[in-house]
Design a protein that fits this description.
By secondary structure, this protein is α/β, with parallel strands linked by helices. Strands 1-11-8-7-5-6 form a 6-stranded parallel sheet. The protein has a 3-stranded parallel sheet with strand order 3-2-4, with helices on both faces. The protein has a two-stranded antiparallel sheet with strand order 9-10. α1 runs parallel beside α10. The structure holds nicotinamide-adenine-dinucleotide.
Amino acid sequence: MSPYLINGSILAERQREQIRNEVRSLRSEGVLPCLAAIRIGEDPAASAYARSQAREASSCQIEYRLVELQPDILVTGALAVIEELNTDPSISGIMLHLPLPAHLDAFLLQQAIAPRKDVEGVGATNLGLLLMGRKALVPCTAAAAMACLKSLANPIEGRQAVVVGRSVIVGKPLALLLLESHATVTICHSRTRNLSELTRRAEILMVAAGRPGLIGAEHVSPGCIVIDVGIHRVESKQSDGKPIMKTVGDVRFDEVAAIASAITPVPGGVGPLTVAMLLENTVRAAKREKQDPRA
Ligand code: NAD
């Protein structure tokens, strides 16, 4: 039987519709949500990401301010720009495009963003709140992966969930969100022995390893729900032998789809929801600022 295909584009459009309603109501009360995105230097992937953010923000009537800084800016200069945005009442949320030029430390700059404006949810305060099960601005990719899972009617409570990957922005927050939903969670990583033995126990398998095609049929038990966070551009061959660039995930889709009960495709799964979650966090930040500007 074919698995249920989780369509991230449809879910993202639903999410944007909800955001539009929230923004309409905020605007009627005089609050204009605004996302400031800082880009330092010219990275083609970051530029493409910024364009898609601008497009989606505009489709939700959220202001989008791209703050473009020179690649040779000193750390003190970058920190001063962040402080200016932190104290600017017209800015609801701030995000930092990566990668940064080599002389700048992403951790240092991200931690300088005020927690109430940290819409990527990567600062210590928001990650700490998530750990404590409190309402926080949740890292967007982890939130997007959870939204894919929650779009299914299947219960999460009491299920065996396995997360492959332990990064601060995806794997760890994802594991915490699964715990919040009362799953029994195992986290696997690059030093895990017998990966397939552990992943085969999963009723829910969330993969964020950053390794194209890492997970195959040998890693998955029949009926498993598989959420693939990975996204990679790889060279592949057309039927005539000519090379072509393809977007693939961490999961060997055809193999795993033959076994899973539900699966996210790549592209078109988790990816489209990530920007929607960033906008959702921007609206949440704008609402909180309205309720208590000191929060
Ligand atoms: P990362 O490189 O920071 O972390 C990868 C994690 O996977 C590490 O914790 C590592 O221990 C683990 N890992 C690596 N090799 C492994 C192996 N062989 N077995 C088990 N675990 C292994 O990556 P990240 O930033 O967490 O991103 C993960 C993936 O998600 C990447 O493919 C990235 O492109 C993708 N991503 C997608 C979106 C999106 O919007 N869909 C956003 C961010 C990241």
